[in-house]
Amino acid sequence: MPRSHTSGVNTAVILDHFRTHGAPLTLSKTGVVAWDDAEFHRAAHAADPERYLLLALVPGVHESQRARALLQTLVSSRAELPESTRVILDKATRALLFGLSPARVITVLLAARRRRANHKHVTRATLAFILDHPDAELLVAARRPALRDCFEHALGKNTARGCLRTITDGDLDLPELRRKLLRFSADPAVAVERVRQLYAPGTYGAPMLTEPIAPLEPVRAREPIVTVTNRGDIAATLVHLYRGGSAYELGSALTAYVTAATRGLPRLPGHVALVLDTSESMRGYGEREWALLSQAEALRLVLAQVCAQLSVIEVGAGQSAPTDLATGVLDALEAVAAKTDPRNAGDSPESSGEQNGASARVVIGGRQTTGEETVSATPDLVIVVTDGYENRLPGDLARVAATLPLIGVHTPIVLCRAMFTGSDDRALRDPAPALPTVGFWHQDDFAALLPWLFARTPAGADWIRSAAHRFLDTLPEGVTP
């Protein structure tokens, strides 16, 4: 399927919906499946089934949206899809089966039963969850009737009960049993025990497991008190540098942390412009001094490694100039020739307090270069990183953002708001309400932030697809088929 800029825009729309629409997927006692965005999911799946399901794996997506994507994928036919796409869908389906909370997965399987979805991939997915889940014994004890209904829907009631009779009679070596049941399980001996448990007398009040066995996003441990040095390793190292630490010693540590943060991420082709607010409010003071600026610089270092071409336009340099975000955006869109930024993840970053004479600095692939570099085209994306305080011509960024499309400039512009904690009050920190906006305060936020940003570029859909493929390839044994 050919990729296009339109595909990238559609990717952004789908991802925004997955991130912001958190209404639960429910199944009533009468069997009615309730999801208020069913038509949206049908259209997104029909456009590109592989892209649709892989977007559900992106960090930051609501679990209820992942459940919807799993359901839509299960109930949809794969008859016209190429084999390579089916393999990816099987891997992603299995990742969701074990990456969502068991209660949500059971709801999805019951909804598929209600929709009378009898595709072969529904059979494989249902039996993989019931027979191969490491905690299946506990799940069966807690949700025996529901799982038995799903089991009989997957095989057919007569086939399922015929397999039970064969198991009860002890004829475990019959080829028919393997053909109808055991071939769907990674461990036939365990599968036999699971079937026995499904039809054994139940135990009232057994607790239900609440956590997935293989979470799609790692569970992060947070310090109870947020400081400037516990918001990620990159930002913490930068804070020590800004406070006068040894550039030689901290520089090597910074290189290692940036490398670790970007390891395994594909490269994004094209040109990204970063408008970086380095004003006094970004520096901060007291216990929060350097907190926002270090996190913004951490994002710049990560983008420099991931983007093939990154231009950086600083506004408010030296913590003394006014925060003129609108002019920074216009400078980014001009894409004029500028001196190459000699800094990269392996160099000691100069303090953001030092004045920079160039209006724009260009980083090409994170490599250290010298001389002049010419930006040959308008950027594919403009990222404005700021704390949200616009102390020169307030509202100017909003007016510029509203005017650009009217004069034929359609380059996507997004606002990334640097915060000290995730609970910061942002009521007075929204200089352009019409722009797509996201907040970040910890290095861990980059995992969700990068796909959200890149989805708006022409190459973003392919970047997310490649990143998702790499993620599926690294899943632990027993989770991928």
UniProtKB/TrEMBL annotation:
Q: Where is the composition biased (Polar residues)?
A: 349-358
Q: Which domain of life is it from?
A: Bacteria
Question: Which region ranges are annotated with the description Disordered?
Answer: 340-360
What is this protein's record name? Answer: VWA domain-containing protein
Species name for this entry?
Nocardia seriolae
